[in-house]
Amino acid sequence: MKYAISAPAQGRAWPNASEYAASVLDRVANLLSTRQQTCPLCRDFGLPMRFVDKPANVAVPIAVVEVTEGLRKWVPEAEFLNITFMNDESNPGRLIPIVEVEIPDEI
Q: N or C: which end of the chain has fewer CB within 10 A?
């Protein structure tokens, strides 16, 4: 099944997802919102976030690569499909990534 996940997924709930898919979606959302070197006992987890404070035309390609590689490494159950960016209306200049993934039925 296909799902779209946003990085600031506060109070996440996946009502139409199976328990397996919901656990994978939680892992994807955690990956998107975690900067590398900030997770105790697993400093390599997260995204390097080299795209922060860059102009949009530079940040977007860097973010795409980082998200793709992060998903491949940390959440291999989720197949990366697409990433789009939405402008944050309350914080001009901030882009919110919306990642589309496909998660197979329970294994």
A: C
